[in-house]
TrEMBL record:
One of its GO terms (cellular component) is membrane. Coiled coil: none annotated. It holds the Pfam family ABC_membrane. It comes from Engystomops pustulosus. This is ABC transmembrane type-1 domain-containing protein. Keywords: ATP-binding, Membrane, Nucleotide-binding, Transmembrane, Transmembrane helix, Transport. The chain crosses the membrane at residues 67-88, 100-116, 156-181. GO terms for molecular function: ABC-type transporter activity; ATP binding. InterPro entries: ABC1_TM_dom (IPR011527), ABC1_TM_sf (IPR036640), ABC_transporter_C-like (IPR050173). The keyword tRNA-binding does not apply. Residues 31-190 form the ABC transmembrane type-1 domain.
Length: 200
């Protein structure tokens, strides 16, 4: 899919809805990173307190209520943001599909007679059936999966780089290697499609 088509799809969401979608995704993954950092702090403090006192949590009776309360609050906020993000994705897909359908319908209705003489009726029906089925069903789910995977990778790299700064040294060759691997598989996929193509 060309970048121009992706830009057309995202711009059809509107000026207000697209920033809300991006902000909800960023906030959701920020909460997930906060949960991981808080669990790391909870574990670290528990281990340090246990080793300094020379006993276990069972016989010393450590009070973990502040840690557990913050963890519960962060988890509830993360669940709420997951629901809000899913709703925003579905609402964005519905609005984009409605806008694109109206634009296509107006273009077909206002098309000159020469268009209907040179274009098969089945091709027009496929635009309103198969293509819009992809827009309605597949693109919103793919968009959510893409944004979730991208932000998960970015947040994981950020947490690892924060905890282990020396990881940044190995990050540059990893990025270069991943780029060339992705480029290789893209070329291989295009070659496979061209090889298996049978003209009508």
């Amino acid at each position: 899919m060309p970048w121009r088509a992706c830009g057309k799809y995202l711009s059809s969401a509107g000026i207000l809805l697209l920033p809300v979608l991006v902000f909800s995704q960023l906030l959701k993954h920020s909460l997930m990173v906060a949960i991981d950092l808080w669990l790391a702090k909870w574990t670290s403090d528990t281990i340090s307190n246990t080793s300094s006192s020379g006993c276990t949590t069972q016989n010393c009776g450590f009070d973990h209520s502040p840690y557990s309360m913050v963890f519960i609050v962060l988890s509830c906020l993360a669940i709420i943001m997951c629901l809000a993000t899913s709703s925003a994705v579905e609402w964005t897909g519905l609005r984009v599909a409605k806008k694109l359908h109206n634009s296509l319908l107006n273009a077909v209705i206002l098309a000159p007679m020469r268009f209907f003489e040179t274009t098969p009726l089945g091709s027009i029906l496929n635009r309103f059936s198969a293509d819009f089925n992809t827009i309605d069903q597949h693109i919103p789910a793919t968009l959510e999966c893409l944004s979730r995977s991208t932000l998960l990778c970015v947040s994981a790299l950020a947490v690892i780089s924060y905890v282990t700064p020396i990881f940044l040294i190995s990050l540059v060759p990893l990025v270069i290697t991943c780029y060339f691997i992705q480029k290789h598989f893209r070329v291989a996929a295009r070659y496979s499609l061209y090889k298996n193509y049978t003209p009508p």
